[in-house]
Design brief:
alpha/beta, single chain, globular, 25 strands
Length: about 500
């Protein structure tokens, strides 16, 4: 495998005039536009000193031109560094100081502040790109020669660095190679049956693995097209479904669709595939979506460091609450804390090995070494179980494990019990300090709008009837909303901090 851009280009349709991207307001981009636009930006980046291995950081809103920038970085041999648009000045400063990019591309509205931050971090060039596709990046590149050469890259050369969410300390830069990204998306294209006839609803952000690599690459590697939304809007998505065949989303997308009376079997009649990931999909959401639409959502499992690892089958039974089977070429095992494989059916840490697994953490060799076993398996930190049919169940994160009175409590098991209670929309189970038990199980619950007024006593009684006493929440708190990150994952670290003093006066 060579430069990832070459792999993508080899799969573009022979007729480059075919549309690759369309926005709701009528803007269209052809594969020819994709090539010429990315070529011009690659020329500009090269003129600004970007060479093989140089980082290009981008904190920009989603736009078609953002895809051109990503492809341009690949073409000139650079390393793409997308940054969450929610990051503030101090956070951005950390990333720039750590990654030392040669170029930063930012939103025009934030240019003045970021110019100063970039200057202190030694970034030589700051360019702008707005959500409207305008900015100095486009202005300076539009008259350049689009025939930029594609710089040769080896399999293990870096294509991108994505910083992890950093909920337990400073974010780490996951180094992803051309082979990591290319091999994984070829597998996904074939596993999910993408062809040139597909039309993908793309409503995901493009600073994250899911939207930038999984969704976009599946389109480009199948020569298909995407209906490109700056953000998710349920009505817009429902308007587009009659023209689309597939959608990739996070669980929040599906709950918002279910909240609309327009979501029916007829509305989804033209769709062949709904994919969910980036956060656990509640079994209730899975069941209700199937009941309303006739479609079983395909849930898969991945992470920043590995892109995609597992998937429920395209053809075959998709089971709600599971993430299916290992992808072709990916090895999965469930192990104890010392890396010893556990028997099927036992709960342990999920470890993964394959061409999708990242090169390590940027400039953190000790952290990298600590996260890999000697036989090459990467320790994901996710707690999982493989059932007797081979389906993988993600139980939770190892850091979310609760040890109460010496007993292990896996939050997911308690959450599944609570979430099925009439009147509960969703729960998050956490451990907080307790003077007697070390940690106490606490449930944080969002009530179902329009449902019965479920009480803390009712939740605890239901849990007592179904679970061992040490798993039953000692306290239940109700909230209007559970805190989530940009990809829809519940931020349990914030809940633990909020409720950490719940038992401070307990005897």
């Amino acid at each position: 495998m060579t430069n990832l851009y070459d792999l993508l280009k080899q799969n573009f349709p022979a007729d480059r005039g075919q549309t690759v991207l369309e926005t709701p307001d009528g803007l269209t981009m052809s594969y020819a536009d994709l090539e010429s636009g990315s070529g011009r930006i690659a020329r500009l980046l090269t003129d600004k000193g970007v060479g093989p291995g140089d980082r290009v950081a981008a904190q920009i809103e989603k736009s078609p031109q953002a895809i051109l920038l990503y492809l341009a970085v690949l073409r000139c041999g650079g390393v793409y560094l997308p940054l969450n648009t929610a990051y503030k000045g101090g956070e951005v400063a950390y990333f720039l100081e750590d990654a030392e990019p040669r170029v930063l591309v930012c939103d025009p509205a934030g240019e003045a502040a970021l110019q100063e931050i970039a200057g202190k971090a030694g970034v030589g060039t700051v360019l702008t790109l707005g959500e409207d596709g305008q900015g100095s990046l486009i202005d300076l590149s539009q008259r350049l020669d689009p025939e930029a050469a594609v710089v040769s890259r080896d399999d293990d050369d870096l294509a991108a660095i994505l910083y992890t969410s950093g909920t337990t300390g400073r974010s780490k830069g996951a180094m992803l190679s051309h082979k990591n990204l290319g091999a994984n998306t070829l597998t996904l294209r074939d596993t999910w049956g993408f062809t040139a006839d597909d039309v993908l609803i793309h409503a995901l952000p493009v600073f994250h693995t899911h939207g930038l690599f999984v969704a976009t690459h599946c389109v480009l590697l199948s020569g298909s097209r995407m209906l490109f939304l700056n953000r998710f809007d349920a009505d817009t998505v429902l308007d587009l479904m009659p023209r689309a065949t597939a959608m990739m989303g996070v669980p929040t997308f599906y709950t918002r669709l279910l909240a609309s009376p327009r979501l029916t079997r007829d509305a989804c009649a033209h769709m062949r595939l709904f994919v969910s990931g980036s956060a656990p999909l509640l079994p209730e959401t899975f069941k209700e979506f199937e009941s309303r639409t006739g479609h079983r959502i395909l849930e898969r499992y991945g992470m920043t460091e590995t892109t995609m690892n597992t998937s429920n089958p395209l053809d075959g039974e998709r089971i709600g609450g599971t993430v299916g089977f290992p992808l072709p070429g990916v090895e999965i095992r469930i192990a104890d804390d010392d890396g010893r494989p556990l028997p099927q059916g036992e709960v342990g840490v999920l470890e993964v090995k394959g061409p999708n697994v990242f090169r390590g953490y940027w400039r953190q060799p000790e952290k990298t070494a600590a996260e890999f076993r000697q036989d090459g398996f990467f320790i994901t930190g996710d707690v999982a179980m493989i059932d007797d049919r081979g389906y993988i169940h993600i139980v939770g994160r190892a850091k979310d494990l609760i040890i109460s009175g010496g007993f292990n409590v896996y939050p997911k098991e308690v959450e599944l019990c609570i979430d099925q209670i009439d009147g509960v929309q969703e729960s998050a189970v956490i451990g907080v300090p307790h003077p007697d038990f070390g940690e106490a199980v606490v449930a944080v619950v969002k009530r179902q709008g329009g449902g019965p007024e479920v009480s803390a006593d009712a939740i605890q009684s239901t849990a007592k009837a179904a679970l061992a006493n040490f798993k039953v929440p000692k306290k239940v708190f109700f909230v209007d909303d559970l805190p989530r990150n940009t990809m829809g994952k519940v931020q349990k670290n914030l809940l633990r901090d909020r409720f950490k003093d719940s038992f401070s006066s307990a005897a």
